[in-house]
Amino acid sequence: MAQTPGQQELPDAAGKKILVASCTSCHELTEVTKFRGYYTRADWNDIVVTMVKYGATVKEQDVPVLVDYLYSTLGKKN
Amino acid sequence: MFQTSIRRGYRVAILILTLSPTMAAAQVRIVQTNSGADTIHLIDPANNSIAGEIKGVPINHGAAASPDGRTLYFSSEAERVLAVVDARTLAITKKVALTGRPNNISIAGDGSRVYVGIVSEPGAVDVIDAKTLERVKSIPTRGGIHNVYVTPDGKHVVAGSIAGRNMMVIDARTDEPLWSLFDEGVRPMAFETDRDGSTKRMFVQLSDLHGFAIVDFKARKEVGRVTLPEIPVEQRDAGPFNASPSHGIGVTPDGTSLWVLSRPNGKVYAYSLPDLKLLGGVDVGKRPDWLTFTPDSKRVYVATEPADSVTVIDVPTRKEVTRVKVGRGPKRNITIVMK
After folding, report:
1. Cβ atoms within 10 Å of A63's Cβ, excluding its own
2. pLDDT at residue B42, as a whole number
3. CB atoms A27 and B77 under 8 Å
4. Is residue A34 part of a domain?
5. Do A26 and B163 touch (CB under 8 A)?
6. Inter-chain touch A49–B77, beta carbons under 8 Å
7. What structural domains does chain B harbor?
8. Count of structural domains, chain A
9. What is the dihedral of CA B266, B268, B271, B273, to 10 degrees?
10. Do B36 and A24 touch (CB under 8 A)?
11. Residue A22 has pLDDT above 70, yes or no
């Protein structure tokens, strides 16, 4: 299956599956990858919490997995 | 004959001297944010070319301008600041720290305060004093704020929350909430005024609604909904649309029509005011996000995010004029008059 814009640049991991399943029904992944390099772990947690409030379906136990994935692949490193 | 020419010459010179300070000083610009970049573009509507570029506001979201057009304000989602920009030099003069991740912004009619919607939970409207450029207050809200507006008469601040599923109307003098409406995610809004300048109706886009709700502002209640036209399925964009199939709405400055964007249809639709009769639709390109008008109500500028461009439409004829290439992911835009 063809990957949507933004998917190719992300490494495969459990967090990616959650990201693709939970976010791409509403957004292109470029809406996520555009934040590359700007956010701390707390910032990514804020984004995920906000999106869950918006109605994104992320299981409670998947939230830290997704936040860790976003931070490790797109997070602010210094 | 010669004397007549001299007199004509004097008259022309006097006319130029009389008009030139205003004409030379007043410049209209379309300010186009680029949500996927750190740049913002200024478009000259006289020739639809890029007249300037502001740099250094990463993942910019909201835009506002002082009444004299000399100071511009932008929210940065990446840096969680309100960036203040000198409109003449296009240099950033200050970045004001916010209480959370910002979305859209608005400014008081007298330019004294800038209101910033904070989308981070629990949500707030941060208030920035435009003179001191300090955050002077943070108004609590029920959920993160996506868009915030000051009503045309300057008396109210209206904040819409997607997560909190409500629209909160705040007294601009006291910063106290007055009333709220909806149990749905609240998206962009537009305002229709009465003859005395007070707010008559609001047109409100909502999550998953391909259209808009009509709010009687004085009665504080929703009085109807308008659904945008459907087009054949094979012509429709399948999305995704950020759960907002209709995003971007505005009343022309002359108050005669309402323009509403459709993401699945890739069109802008015009409705007459006050009767809300559909006048027609115009193709603008995929997934339009926001629109703004020239002060004379003759042109509307529609940001189309995937194309990195702005589609210019002639309002009276509802025909496309041109498309202007801008930065990555153009979304919010505003019109400024630099005096």
Report:
1. 16
2. 98
3. no
4. yes
5. no
6. no
7. 30-338 (2.130.10.10)
8. 1
9. 150
10. no
11. yes
A38 chain-B contacts, CB cut-off 8 A: 58-59, 78-79
Q: Quick check: B329 and A28 CB within 8 A?
A: no
Chain A hits for B242, CB-CB cut-off 8 Å, are 26-27, 31
- Reported as a single tens digit per residue, the pLDDT across B302-321 is 999 999 999 999 999 999 99
Cβ pairs bridging A and B (under 8 Å): 51
Residues of chain B neighbouring A26 (CB-CB closer than 8 A): 240-243
How many angstroms separate the CA atoms of B331 and B336, rounded? 16
Contact B163 A53 (CB under 8 A): yes
Residue from A26, A49, A54, A57 whose CB has the most chain B CBs within 10 Å, to mutate:
A54
Tokens representing B149? 């507006």
Please say whether the beta carbons of B209 and B290 come within 8 A. Answer: no
Which residues of chain A make contact with B185, given a CB cutoff of 8 A?
54-55
- State residue B26's pLDDT score: 85
CATH of the domain at A32: 1.10.760.10
Domain extent, residue A59, equals 14-74
Q: Which two tokens stand for residue B27?
A: 């410049």
E strand or H helix that includes residue B282: strand B278-283
* Per-10-residue mean pLDDT, chain B, length 339: 45 45 72 97 98 98 98 98 98 98 98 98 97 98 97 98 97 97 98 97 98 98 98 94 95 98 98 98 97 98 97 98 98 96
* Joined tokens for residue B282: 């115009």
A32 domain residue, yes or no: yes
